[in-house]
């Protein structure tokens, strides 16, 4: 057969392209076929024996009376899938030799994961890993990574360590490449690379921090603020945690404004006032809540006033587990309800994916408990079918004792 080139994409959805024909894995209807293809492509430099494939696909309990026959049927389906690239391509591309399957050596396979690894390796072996050439190689490699390795097969035991290996290589490439782009003032390239990384792994805080630095360097402070707030909501709703100290420092840097003009006291007052009509408690993010708490705790050391803090926690009724989406909906509903129910001087913030913290500056212990009970009762009347149970804990603010 004439020399042909089969282009393979294993990052993201597995796909194979031959000339103007393309096949790709987009659903689980042919899960076994695409898992076999992925395995054979990953081990394409050697013959994969039938016993190895039998071990991969079946065990004694699940193989049935004739596992060898079942494997033969599965491989027939694999070849039928490859036939979509051209008549007879299933047998032309994938050969059976010496009791196993091997890719036809006359076919050139161009696989993205191999090009990716080659670029990473070349960058690592540069005499200076911070050199322009090394970093350009890393940028090129990062752009090849279109998603998790064989993303439709991530539950397969053999895929899990392989996917983790490539994910780690990708993360390292981005972490090394973006500062290089920033140093060369190629901010837009760095921003695009970071946004692609976040789209691939939306829970990696290191990618957000790299993006925040690029945006700051490009003087896009409002974008940093928006990004941080979106990340905070995501981490809080998913893991019940807040961004780390480095992210908060970048956020605070973005909040700073460069203003060389002197403003009058009247303008200052206008800037500090709330733009919307005041109604109910003030809703704020958790970092702001902590700053207010610490300021109030310092004042308490001198004034001796009583300030109480309440922790509201959502759980399932009667100890039952509830779906994440149900908790999120209850949190949204309770947020709107509690802000309307409390006074203007009270402060409300989400402190985890299922909890609110509230500051009651003008309530003693008894009044605080009474207010909490009233808020919960009215909420449950408004949402009688909500699957959540709301518990609360009231405690007095501890005055700051620092010198």
Brief rundown of the structure:
With 403 residues, this protein is α+β, with helices and mostly antiparallel strands. 52% of the residues lie in helices and 15% in strands. It has 3 domains: 108 residues, Arc Repressor Mutant, subunit A, CATH 1.10.10.10; 143 residues, Serine Threonine Protein Phosphatase 5, Tetratricopeptide repeat (Alpha Horseshoe), CATH 1.25.40.10; 115 residues, Reverse transcriptase/Diguanylate cyclase domain (Alpha-Beta Plaits, 2-Layer Sandwich), CATH 3.30.70.
CATH class of the largest domain: Mainly Alpha
The amount of helix comes to 40-55%
Tally of contiguous helical segments: 15
Characterize the overall form. Answer: elongated
**Beta strand %:** 15-25%
User: SSE string, helix = H, strand = E?
Assistant: EEEHEHHHEEEHHHHHHHHEHEHEEHE
Backbone CA Rg: 29 Å
Provide the number of structural domains.
3
User: What's the architecture of the largest domain, going by CATH?
Assistant: Alpha Horseshoe
Q: Which regions have little confidence, pLDDT < 50, spanning 5+ residues?
A: none
Spatial separation of the terminal alpha carbons: 84 Å
Structural class: alpha+beta
The average pLDDT score comes to 88
Q: Largest sheet at a glance?
A: 5 strands, mixed
Compute the number of strand runs. Answer: 12
Q: Remind me, CATH topology of the largest domain?
A: Serine Threonine Protein Phosphatase 5, Tetratricopeptide repeat
Spatial order of the strands forming the largest sheet: 8-10-11-9-12
State the fourth-level CATH superfamily of the largest domain.
Tetratricopeptide repeat domain
């Amino acid at each position: 057969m004439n020399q042909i080139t089969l282009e393979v994409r294993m990052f993201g959805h597995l796909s194979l392209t031959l000339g103007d024909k393309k096949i790709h894995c987009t659903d689980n209807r042919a899960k076994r076929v695409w898992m076999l293809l992925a395995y054979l492509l990953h081990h394409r430099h050697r013959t994969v024996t039938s016993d190895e494939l039998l071990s991969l696909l079946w065990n004694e309990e699940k193989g049935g009376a004739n596992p060898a026959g079942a494997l033969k049927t599965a491989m027939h389906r694999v070849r039928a899938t490859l036939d979509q690239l051209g008549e007879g391509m299933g047998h032309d591309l994938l050969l059976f030799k010496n009791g196993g399957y091997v890719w036809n050596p006359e076919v050139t396979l161009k696989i993205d994961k191999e090009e990716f690894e080659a670029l990473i390796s070349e960058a690592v072996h540069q005499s200076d890993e911070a050199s322009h050439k090394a970093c350009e190689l890393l940028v090129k490699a990062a752009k090849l990574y279109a998603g998790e390795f064989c993303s439709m097969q991530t539950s397969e035991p053999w895929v899990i360590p392989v996917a983790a290996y490539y994910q780690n290589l990708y993360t390292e490439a981005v972490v090394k490449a973006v500062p290089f782009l920033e140093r060369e003032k190629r901010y837009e390239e760095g921003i695009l690379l970071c946004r692609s990384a976040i789209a691939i792994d939306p829970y990696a805080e290191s990618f957000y921090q790299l993006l925040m630095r690029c945006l700051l360097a490009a003087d896009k402070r409002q974008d940093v603020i928006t990004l941080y707030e979106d990340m905070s909501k995501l981490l809080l709703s998913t893991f019940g945690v807040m961004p780390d100290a480095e992210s908060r420092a970048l956020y605070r840097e973005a909040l700073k404004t460069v203003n060389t003009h002197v403003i009058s006291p009247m303008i200052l007052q206008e800037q500090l006032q709330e733009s919307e009509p005041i109604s109910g408690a003030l809703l704020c993010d958790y970092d702001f809540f902590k700053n207010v708490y610490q300021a109030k705790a310092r004042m308490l050391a001198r004034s001796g006033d009583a300030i109480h803090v309440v922790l509201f926690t959502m759980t399932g009724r009667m100890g039952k587990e509830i779906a994440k989406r149900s908790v999120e909906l209850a949190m949204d509903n309770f947020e709107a309800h509690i802000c309307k129910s409390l006074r203007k001087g009270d402060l409300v913030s989400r402190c985890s994916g299922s909890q609110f913290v509230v500051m009651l500056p003008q309530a003693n212990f008894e009044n605080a408990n009474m207010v909490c009970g009233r808020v919960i009762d009215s909420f449950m009347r408004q949402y009688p079918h909500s699957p959540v149970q709301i518990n609360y804990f009231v405690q007095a603010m501890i005055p700051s004792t620092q010198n």
